[in-house]
Design goal:
alpha/beta, TIM Barrel, two-stranded antiparallel ribbon, 8 helices, binds zinc ion
Length: 266
């Protein structure tokens, strides 16, 4: 069943309108499509939605207009530092994009320059950086229980295009394992996010293979997502990613259909 629930539009930092995305999804035989505009972050207005009401109303219009062709869902990508009103949305993707130091928010994944500022903030001590990131994110996941956890290990985003700092470091891997083992207790769904593959930054999705094996061991739940900011990357690399997940031992992922999370066999 073809579907994608992590998509950004012109209501935040995406390039296409929701209607363009819906039409593309219909043309490509999707069963359902979900939008996940960045929730409002007062401390950083570059990526987030400024007009939530217009976003919700436009998606409601599309739900009705195309109801005989595709199921459309109103989601949101909530930042861990800025909770949204849950009842406004069909589902929430909970993601962690910042470090907070005093009153300054440092974005971890928005660009390589900002990533370097995060490294400087921690004086290039990636163990403390990782502990700080995962302990706060894990705390958020367990308390908030978002429907879907977004790009769990996004702090490793630049590992393949820059000095490898995280994925080849056994100390880092221990920390990521420890917090994934905690986070999976929340029983929420973890996204397998192919966005960085589409951007040429990685060859495998988030979370990293080691963490996917750990999720399998703990019966973790998964959903595929592309984190698309333009329509031509919708479901990017999903066929290869499904094979990758089957090789790890997963038999199904989740999708949203008829207003419920349902199993979709790989
Ligand atoms: Zn994100
Ligand atoms: Zn996103």
């Amino acid at each position: 069943m073809l579907s994608d629930f992590h998509t950004h539009t012109t209501f935040c930092d995406g390039e296409n309108t929701p209607e363009e995305i819906v039409l593309y999804a219909i043309d490509n035989g999707f069963a359902s499509i979900g939008f996940s505009g960045h929730g409002y972050t007062s401390f950083d207005l570059r990526y987030c939605m400024k007009d939530k009401a217009a976003y919700i109303s436009e998606i409601n219009r599309l739900k009705k207009k195309y109801k005989n062709k595709i199921q459309v869902y109103t989601g949101v990508e909530e930042d861990a530092f800025s909770p949204v009103n849950r009842s406004d949305f069909d589902y929430i993707i909970g993601s962690s994009h910042y470090f907070l130091d005093g009153e300054t928010y440092y974005p971890i994944d928005s660009s390589y320059d900002y990533f370097k500022k995060c490294l400087e903030l921690f004086k290039y001590d990636i163990i403390t950086l990782s502990e700080t990131y995962y302990s706060a994110f894990c705390d958020y996941i367990l308390k908030r229980k978002p429907d879907i956890v977004g790009h769990f290990d996004v702090i490793t985003k630049f590992d393949m295009i820059d000095t490898p700092r995280f994925l080849s470091n056994p100390e880092y891997l221990k920390i990521a394992d420890k917090y994934m083992t905690e986070a999976v207790k929340s029983d929420v769904i973890f996204e397998v996010n192919t966005g960085a593959i589409a951007r040429g930054l990685r060859t495998t999705p988030y979370p990293h293979e080691n963490l996917l094996y750990l999720l399998k061991k703990h019966n973790g739940k998964l959903i595929l997502s592309s984190d698309s900011h333009r329509l031509d990357t919708l479901t990017f690399n999903f066929d290869e990613t499904k094979k990758f997940l089957r090789d790890i031992g997963f038999e199904y992922v989740y999708t949203i259909y008829d207003n419920e999370f349902k199993k979709d066999y790989l």
